[in-house]
Amino acid sequence: MVLIYADDAGFGDLSCYGATKVKTPNLDRLAAQGIRFTDAHSSAATCTPSRFSLLTGEYSFRNPGATILPGDARAIIEPGRFTLASLFQQAGYETGAVGKWHLGLGKGNLDWNGPIAPGPNEIGFGYSFLIPATGDRVPCVYTENGRVVGLDPADPIRVDYRKPTGPEPTGKANPELLKMHPSHGHDMTIVNGVSRIGYMSGGKSALWVDEDMADVITKKATDFIDRNAAKPFFLYFATHDIHVPRLPHKRFLGSTQCGVRCDAMAELDWSVGEIVKALERHNLTRNTIVIFTSDNGPVVDDGYKDGSVENLNGHTPHGGLRGGKYSAYEAGTRMPFLVRWPARIKAGTTSAALISQVDLMGSFAALLGRPLANEAGPDSFNVLPALTGQSRVGRDHLVQQSRGITIRKGKWKLVPAGAEIRAAAGLPTLSSDNAVELYDLERDRGETRNVAAAHPEVVAELTALLEQVKREGRSRRG
Questions:
Q1: Are residues 231 and 346 in the same domain?
Q2: Strand pairing partners for 233?
Q3: Which of 100, 318, 389, 451 is least surrounded, with the fewest CB atoms within 10 Å of its CB?
């Protein structure tokens, strides 16, 4: 089982979902050989909450700590918590996490110069190679199985998100040293010519090079497959692309018609192709499930002047949906979602079933024949028949999170008053007030017509259902 989890890739960023200015042949091949979903969702419109939900099977709004974390945050998934990784590990699988983590590490006041725990290795992953938080946050180093890679003990790392840790230049004070300038925030310690969020000193021998990041983590992922090809394995490969700072390798620069953001998308597609090649090398294609999806909706300007806005050239990352990253509208959580499993899934299938990434735990527990304990995956439903194309029906309802929470049921989408973040991600908003909003997604996919006044009974039903989900602390029964 390979789960490829992209960062900030929107519903319209893949050519198999309609993009024309960027080509994604490897992702298109997954779609052609498996099933492509048109109503699949992350549980939140931002990264940490979605990752928390995917791995725990619990809506992230239930955990107040599951917000966008600084790079020095403590681990928000505690050791002993049942996770998607521990599900596979307990079933005898080798488990690995490679790439972006952003779920916190350690117990607070972390010393980056010694063993780093707890982390993924304490919640079900036998192997880990991580970008600890995000590319735009310090520390700008990799960790492998709880240790910073390539660290010189004579040059210890110091990290602080409140005050400088040394004399290192910053983007705010030394803009002349930058090869990419911030558009907002992102003006603290400079690493590799890019100023970041947070302050860092030391660790010079361990610092990553952004342009090489996709190569480094993709190689670690394929190495994991090579080592474990003779055993059952679960690989969680979380790419950094297409998150900021967008600095794809030079071989991808200019490879698309919509600027560096799309060039990073082409790099992401290359990474997917390398994973597929590794499976093919070991004749694992037929019986290996490969899932591709993203953590939240798209954003164009997310803190750096990288030309993404100016060079978009008609590309629509949101794919005709409303909103994007941070948003309560559909583009915030409706994700590209591809599943390939030649042994079980008919090639070239498209499904409109309503599913969520939070359902992976419940679905794979069913596949592995391992019933979930009552406290495990409280919001994770078994949608395996939908995931494999055996059913057109997914879940009954779905809670979506931005800074507030919204709810979907069937064709209806309810946005409670105040749930939307106005002017999210630089995309135009279509509502000027904080009134309750109701949308009929069958007739109005772009959420342009608020029909709450015409359907008070639906507003009442969905409001009551949302309050029930919040109040009961779980939505899965049994």
A1: yes
A2: 94
A3: 451
**Tell me, what amino acid is at 54?**
L
Helices (H), 91-239: 213-227
Confidence of residue 426 (pLDDT cuts 50, 70, 90): very low
Residue whose pair of structure tokens reads 């109040």 in the numeric block: 471
Query: Hey, is 259 helix, strand or coil?
Result: helix
Q: Do 459 and 410 fall into the same domain?
A: yes
Token pair recorded at residue 341: 């499993």
Q: How far apart are the first and last CA of the chain?
A: 25
Integer Cα distance of 383 and 392 in angstroms: 10
> Which two tokens mark 100?
């972006």
Q: Are 36 and 75 members of one domain?
A: yes
Instruction: Specify whether the CB–CB gap between 165 and 105 falls below 8 A.
Output: no
- Pairing relationship of beta strands 35-41 and 349-351 according to DSSP bridges: parallel
Region class of 160: left (phi > 0), else alpha (psi between -120 and 50), else beta:
beta
3-class DSSP state of 136: coil
Query: Over the range 467-476, which residues count as b (16 or more CB within 10 Å of their CB) and which as e?
Result: eebeeeeebb
Q: Do 129 and 267 form a contact (C-beta atoms < 8 A)?
A: no
Task: Give mean pLDDT, residues 286-303.
Answer: 98
DSSP state of 143: E
Residue with tokens 């390539």: 150
Judge if 436 and 334 occupy the same domain.
no
Q: Please, what is the Cα angle at 247 between 177 and 115, to 5 degrees?
A: 85
Is 477 inside any structural domain?
no
Backbone φ and ψ of 304, nearest 5°: -130, 145
Contact 338, 32 (CB under 8 A): no
Q: In this structure, what token pair is assigned to residue 31?
A: 């779609």
For residue 68, count other CB atoms closer than 10 A to its CB: 15
Q: Which domain holds residue 124?
A: 2-157+202-387
- Please state, in angstroms and rounded to a whole number, the distance separating the CA atoms of residues 50 and 427: 21
Q: What is the pLDDT of residues 153-186, one digit of tens each?
A: 999 999 999 999 999 999 999 999 999 999 999 9
Same-domain status, 88 and 227: yes
Paired sense of beta strands 405-409 and 397-401, if any:
antiparallel
DSSP-derived pairing of the beta strands 334-340 and 290-294 = antiparallel
Average pLDDT over residues 138-145: 98
Structure letter (DSSP) for residue 50: H
Q: Do 309 and 211 reside in the same domain of the chain?
A: yes
Q: Is residue 244 part of a domain?
A: yes
> Six-digit token pair at 352?
């409109």
How many domains is the chain built from? Answer: 2
**Do 187 and 170 contact (CB within 8 A), yes or no?**
yes
